[in-house]
Protein 1
Amino acid sequence: VVVADWQSPTLQNTWTNVAGNEVQYKRLPDGTIILRGRATDASPVNGALVFTLSAGYRPPRAMEFIVSQPGFANWCKVLIATNGQVTATDLAGNGSAAFDQIHFSIF
C-alpha cells in the first residue's frame, strides 16, 4: 500500500484553519488514518459539520474523540461518522479544536 500524501479537507460552515497549522489527514500503510492541525469557529454550533473525510479515509464504525481546545482550559468531542462527516460538540469559547490527537484504523 502506498502512503498517501497529506490531504487538506474543505472546512464547512464557519470553520477556518489556524494559520500555519492547517487541518490535514493521511493514510499510513497499515490502514491507520492520522489527523493533524487546528481549526476554529468564531460562532460555533454544536454538532455542525467541520469537514468530510474522503472515501478510503473513513472509519468502519462511528468514532468519538476527546480533543483539546487550544487557548481554553477545555476539551470538546470530535465525532467521525462512517460517511466521513467530522463534527464537533461540547464547544467552549471560540470553538477551536486540535485534531492532532486523532488516529484510527480503517479496518
Note: The first strand starts at residue 16 and ends at 17.
Protein 2
Amino acid sequence: ACLLAAARTGAADAVRRCLRAGADAAHRDVAAGSARTPLHLACARGHRADADAAAAAIVPVLAAAGADIDAEDAHGETALHLAVRTPALKASMHSCLLRARAALGV
C-alpha cells in the first residue's frame, strides 16, 4: 500500500523508501479492482502539472527494482498505454518507458 500511494502521488523519494523497506515493485492494486502496478499509477497522473517529472523520476527506480514494464492492468493496458494517452506526459516520459524496454506491440 505504501508503494502504491507513493507512485499515485508522484513521490519519487517515498517510492525509493518503500522499495528499500521491502515493497514489491510488481505489487498490484487489487483492492481498487484495477490490478494496476505502481508503474501504472505513476504514468496515470496526467492531470497534475508535475506529472512528467514525477513519472520520469519513478519509472527508472521501479524498473531497476524489477517492475514488469509490460504488466497489464484489469483492462489490458500497460503503463506505456497510459502514458501515451496522458497529455501531461511528454515525449521524454515515453522515451523513459521505452528505455526501460516497454514493448510497443502489447
Note: DSSP finds six helices and no strands in the chain.
